[in-house]
Design a protein that fits this description.
5 helices, eight-stranded mixed β-sheet, single chain, alpha+beta
Length: 216
């Protein structure tokens, strides 16, 4: 079956521009951030007509057991098959722990039965610093030679200089790296988290620097 590839960078735009709607504040713990983000993509999948499952599972041939998927979208069409899903449209993993970054990629690109090979994958991964990105992207490229999925990797890390999170997104197709976009994530004056693309945030950041310089 020919794979159905999504425009994952358009998904990224929705994720960034709708982040404030998740109503995540300084009072929420990291588990709540994970839950709200997974719920966001689960709702998106259902609105697009897919069957979305949280904590689904697929068999990992290397480990010899099933492993959980944070989120899956399955395609159903009774006109073609009224007993089985047609294909796994999306596998998403979302991870807070830095030391599990390789494990996240292993889950997204695990050796599995052909009906469990996802057409699209999204990984949302916290990392310790930007220096880790090149290594992880090389791992994605290596594994996707076999899997041939459409892939979006979203890396998030804390920038102490500007007291905000950097959000670095990389879109891959089976041929390699396709597109890169960057955003920030920070709290607004009321303590709620929002995201904004770099090109839209930099003018405000420059104004803040000028204002603070005048005050100083």
């Amino acid at each position: 079956m020919e794979k159905q590839y999504f425009n994952l960078m358009q998904f990224l735009e929705g994720y960034v521009r709708n982040y404030r709607r998740m109503n995540l504040s300084q009072l929420h713990n990291r588990s709540m951030f994970t839950k709200r983000e997974i719920d966001y993509f689960a709702n998106l999948g259902e609105m697009l007509g897919f069957s979305a499952f949280v904590e689904d599972s697929k068999f990992d041939k290397i480990k010899g057991r099933s492993r959980p998927m944070d989120l899956s979208w399955w395609k159903w069409d009774a006109r073609i098959d009224d007993e089985h899903f047609l294909f796994l449209a999306l596998h998403l993993e979302r991870e807070n722990a830095w030391n599990k970054d390789e494990d996240t990629i292993e889950k997204l690109f695990s050796q599995t039965d052909k009906e469990y090979i996802p057409h699209n994958v999204i990984g949302i991964q916290y990392i310790e610093s930007a220096e880790r990105i090149h290594y992880l992207n090389e791992l994605v490229l290596q594994k996707n030679i076999v899997q041939k999925s459409n892939c979006l990797m979203i890396y998030r890390y804390y920038d102490a200089e500007f007291d905000l999170e950097r959000v670095c997104a990389y879109s891959f197709n089976p041929k390699g790296l396709k597109e890169v976009r960057s955003a920030i994530c920070k709290q607004d004056d009321s303590g709620y988290w929002y995201m904004c693309f770099n090109e839209e945030y930099i003018p405000f950041q420059n104004n803040e620097i000028v204002t603070n310089g005048v005050k100083g």
